[in-house]
């Protein structure tokens, strides 16, 4: 089997999810290349060595610039905090590397455009990891929409709710600083929802939004702070410079109307990535916390039998499921990443594109930035105003 050499930059939450995906893709699916886990790059040497030993990365590096310049690396996997995406992606493209990058794409639409242009100019394959498209129930929702089962779509109702920073003593990690994250849940969570809405409904034309910060100051992080992990904390305080919640309404180009709620202050909601789609022939409901199910209302059912039915999306005929287990033997969050790697390797082999890619990422950033302008100005903003 042909091989491709992968280097990963970032070794914590996404580093782990991606390492699992590069490892498992060829074990469960028929793929044209076997990924070789060549180099892992993180900030601290010891932590990166432990990570590499656990996942089977052959070598360790702490300087990402050396990694992107290596002749023996084909794919750069960008799993670092958002502020590093632009420099790493552009350097990777200039060195002719194919790129598998985490979301949100960048700190701004302008940065995203630069990244897209660099990747296109270099002619490399680029993928932006909005993993939820590759949850089988979501892929199947798209299939049902394409088959016309939902008819004309009137409404998108989306919410992405979490509660991991409601404790005022949760420290000021990179996620809470504008220079590192660009924005709060508006970028982190709404980027996923906008990707899903574009995937399932269509392009967004205009938005109105309100963004809100609830806690202004937090303790500076101690050692070991990371996603969902407070670190030791207890030090001096610093200013939170991103939103804690972001609500947005949107008009789609096809006439549909949408609402988006993103919050890290929704107590009791852990990773509540939820949407409802209402159309002329039926409706769909998805909740990531019940990710193997898709609710479907079919208006062609007899009126006295109508109601939402739960489709258990675990048949071999459902997208991606055939690679895993028999019907009813459910799958989880990490499988979406494996599906992305499978499609990435297939696209690499065919010389075709994969979606979502940096063009999608650019469009998403444009919508998100239009919402920030709306929140600041108090008016509805056309997405095309952001250039
Ligand atoms: N697809 C998803 O659902 C999803 C979920 C969580 C995070 N993310 C995104 O993934 C990215 C990473 O988030 P995370 O939660 O894994 O962050 P994290 O804080 O858990 O890990 C960040 C990693 O980057 C490394 N790093 C930081 N600066 C570096 C540098 N200069 N050189 C080399 N390595 C460096 C750190 O050592 C660490 O290993 C972010 O863009 C985030 O928005 C996506």
Structure description:
32% of the residues lie in helices and 25% in strands. It contains eleven helices and 17 strands. It has helices at 13-28, 45-55, 64-69, 85-94, 109-122, 136-146, 178-181, 185-188, 190-200, 333-350, 358-377; strands spanning 2-9, 33-41, 59-61, 75-78, 98-102, 126-129, 153-161, 204-212, 217-219, 237-239, 245-252, 257-263, 272-279, 282-287, 293-298, 309-312, 381-382. α1 crosses α10. A hairpin with a 4-residue loop joins β11 (245-252) and β12. The longest helix has 20 residues, at 358-377. It has a nine-stranded mixed sheet with strand order 16-15-14-13-7-12-11-8-17. The protein has two domains: 2-132, NAD(P)-binding Rossmann-like Domain (Rossmann fold, 3-Layer(aba) Sandwich); 135-353 and 365-375, Dihydrodipicolinate Reductase, domain 2 (2-Layer Sandwich). It is an alpha/beta fold and 387 residues long. Residues 9-15, 41-43, 64, 79-82, 84, 102-104, 129, 131, 188, 226-227 line the site of nicotinamide-adenine-dinucleotide. Nicotinamide-adenine-dinucleotide binds next to α1.
